[in-house]
Design goal:
- This protein has one domain: Rossmann fold (3-Layer(aba) Sandwich), CATH 3.40.50.
- Helix 3 crosses helix 4 and helix 3 runs parallel beside helix 5.
- The longest helix has 18 residues.
- The two termini are 14 Å apart.
- Helices cover 33% and strands 26% of the residues.
- The chain has seven helices and ten strands.
Length: 239
Amino acid sequence: MSAITSPTPLVQLRGLRKGYNLGMPNELEVLHGLNLRINQGEFAALIGPSGSGKSTLLNVLGLLERATSGEYLLRGQAVQHLPDDELTRLRRDVLGFVFQFHHLLPAFTALENVSLPVLMRDGHVAKPHLARARELLDAVGLSAAMDRKPAQLSGGMQQRVAIARALMLQPALVLADEPTGNLDTASSAEVFALMRRIHQDVGTTFLIVTHDPRLAARCDRVIELVDGQVHRDGATNQT
């Protein structure tokens, strides 16, 4: 079964290749002419064995690394040869990131951590942005923990703060790298349910890297990488 398509994909990759140590004896190509499209509003899982290229693909999609060759269109804009400052702007304004290890600043409260993207963009956090940060923390069930620092929060709570932070600038696409991989079963279920609810309520596009087949099966689409190529790409049985 093929994935749902739309006239204007949010992400489109054409013949994408990514290699390391180019021109050296230990040159290694990780992504081999990869073709992929992700449409606005999708909730997709990216799976594959270790070494299949998932992390490399996520780094390229997240504009953290440039592809060696091929084409990457983000909201219809070719990004392959953009200058670094423009990539930084796109990464900040269009993309949100959630990692297995939440990378919260330990000296900052939950509210300050969620406000951090605005602070980095503007150099200060205005009252409207603080109000949005509070709304996001309320949306992830942490309205009573806004003034707590990460050490005072459970792992699941910290990951919910990280999700709120990823949504602060209203990204078009959230890239989540094993977002539940460091959590117990109950916290993992809570975090996944939260991402699902955000997707349904707001329409934010999610691409979730996971090793958990049960979590992948609860997404709408599963993209499987094997040896740097798309091995399988299709809708799940979610309704």
